[in-house]
Amino acid sequence: MTSPAIDADFLLRLDEIIAAHKGREGPLLPILHDIQAEWGHVPEEAQPVLAEALGMTRAEVHGVVSFYHDFRDHPHGRHVLRLCRAEACQSMGAEALADEVRQALGIDWHQTTPDGRLTLEPVFCLGLCACAPSAQMGDRLVGRANLAKVRKLVAEAGMGAGA
Amino acid sequence: MRVWVPLDAAARALGADEVAEALGREFTVTRNGTRGMIWLEPLVEVEREGVRHGYGPVGPEDAASVAEAIRTGGDHPLALGPVEDLPWMKAQTRLTFARVGVIDPLSVEEYEAHGGLAGLRRAIGIGPERIVAEVTESGLRGRGGAGFPTGIKWKTVAGAKAARKYIVCNADEGDSGSFADRMLMEGDPLVLIEGMAIAGIAVGAVQGYVYIRSEYPDAIRLMEAAIGKARQAGILGQSVLGSGHAYDMEVRVGAGAYVCGEETSLLNSLEGKRGVVRAKPPIPALEGFLGRPTVVNNVISLASVPWILTHGGAEYAKLGIGRSKGTIPIQIAGNVKYGGLFEAAFGMSLRQIIEEIGGGTASGRPVKAAQVGGPLGSYIPHWDFDVPFGYEELATKEGLLGHAGITVFDDTADMLKLARFAMEFCAVESCGKCTPCRIGSIRGVETIDRIAQGDETGIPILTDLCNTMKWGSLCALGGFAPFPVMSALTHFPEDFSGRREPRPTIRSREAAE
Asked: A25, A60, A70, A91: which to substitute to probe chain B, counting the most B Cβ within 10 Å?
């Protein structure tokens, strides 16, 4: 776990993020998205600061962070490969594809490759249901995905030939 | 020469960015939305004598030869002829999606040239009461699944006394098999803005929010850009098109919780809380966002409003069947040969949609069943495909219209596994507020596992459990999860009997995790 130490820089940046949204109606989710974009996860150290700034209890802030699948308490790999597992993709063999990809990468769901470069996550619908199964990595989307296309996606992200 | 290459996420997933880059070296490329024929994506179009001709599907490897065909006007194996003459296009009644795939989604000028803003101008002219009357007369019902009459909802909010009211657009399109909201926000975001501005004027709301799921980064980017363009053009702001009505809006991004598609859960999420469902009453129309009167409508409901205001509610109500008025963007997905979005009046049979329009399965095997309406929708067996596509009509087959997505499965589908998935999805996505959903779904997974191991005494228990969830849950998540489960069990009992599977391991137990 590589939480940023609570140093002056961390608090300064956190204050900036809070200040950017504080005047909005319902500012907490936009703030959490920005925090995660900044540090790759929502550091636990941010929670009491948020609670104080927004007039909430720490428990309330923690409750929100832990409710949503998107917010992580630890950083993931440099790239995140998402494979859709919802029904439309299942109807086109998403389960078999997921098995192949997990085997090829040597990691299971939610795990990161030992070099820290790639995390594998399931996703429930990218809205690409008419060209299933689908995968996503950063800005890249793959329809009618198969192992070869996923390998190519991973390779183009600078992952080397291992995957 | 002007060339179009879609920017829609589905087209991008099939290589449209590479194709656009290659063609951009030679031609002026406009990135449009998708026409909805996903099996033809990337669909490249070129204008010749005022008619748009198509080539598709153009993979990156075809870009060079298609470029040559465009340049020389020569033959090409991927040439489709005039796009609007294709049978799939001609058979549609594209009202809400009229401009999707046609215009540059971020050009206010093109939007207006193709009929945009006429609805908003008329709305400003006739005033709030008559706007609500037009929407009521159109018979428009919630396209997100609940099917509540939009006009009645607006009337309630319009009549509520409050210093501040809101328009909230539910763009948390989490249902597998559904992509109409995404396609519209990427292909014609201005029509949603126009619809929300009309809603704002109708009920007296000055602020709107579009709550978009985080899984749709392209839709988020395009909606935000379109809002910027709309502000510049005076469509949003202190005086909408100079009318004196103030209305502005912004995008809010969800955080991966399926349950936030439920309107009260969405409102809590928008307020920065856990996306937990609220008990009704009070209804959001009276006590919604921050406790104030709020219209919560789905993307397609709001995007249908500009057409209704332009052409009149009566014109819209002429289409459709029974209490299902107007058109519905049918999304044909999953194991289907011609998948995509097909906008048509209500009333086509499922068989027409799946077999004639969709062309049957992609695998070439017989169709076994189709799940209509997302993860909480029933599996309709192929022998019930004569049911007409409409809210009440599907209900006669214990089905839901939901978001009008249809996911097709061939005869290799294992209905027990799909039923298990539905329960597990409910367990993972449950907000935890009510017991039937939170605990029932977990017991449901365990009971289906027992049945899979050969213990058929689990079948009556599962049936009983589904009944409890259906009637005892607070919202549609726990209340509708029994639909896929019971439809699978009722129509395909053979998939639930005589199984001898080993006890599931921890690892195999997280299909929906």
From this structure: A91
Is the bond into B381 cis (omega within 30 degrees of 0)?
no
Q: Are B13 and B145 in a shared domain?
A: no
Q: What is the ipTM of this complex?
A: 0.94
Query: Strand, coil or helix: what is A148?
Result: helix
CATH among 3.40.30.10, 3.90.25.10, 3.60.20.10, 1.10.240.10 for A79-159: 3.40.30.10
Overall pTM > 0.90: yes
pLDDT one-digit tens code per residue, A45-92: 999 999 999 999 999 999 999 999 999 999 999 999 999 999 999 999
**Total domains, chain B:** 4
Which residues 43-82 in chain A show a CB within 8 A of chain B?
A: 54, 60, 63-64, 67-71
The DSSP 8-state label assigned to residue B355 in this structure reads I
Which among A25, A67, A95 has CB closest to B290?
A25
pLDDT tens readout for residues B483-508: 999 999 999 999 999 999 888 765 55
Which helix (H) or strand (E) element contains residue A102?
helix A94-105
A129 known member of a binding site? yes
Query: Among partner residues A60, A87, A134, which is closest to B407 by beta-carbon distance?
Result: A87
B500 phi and psi angles, rounded to 5 deg:
-135, 60
Q: Provide the terminal-to-terminal Cα distance of chain B, rounded to the nearest Å.
A: 49
Chain B residues touching A22 at Cβ < 8 A: none
Structure tokens at B465: 């459990």
- Report the gap between the CA of A144 and the closest CA in chain B (Å): 8
Closest-CA residue of B relative to A150 is B13
Residues B189, B327, single domain; the answer is: no
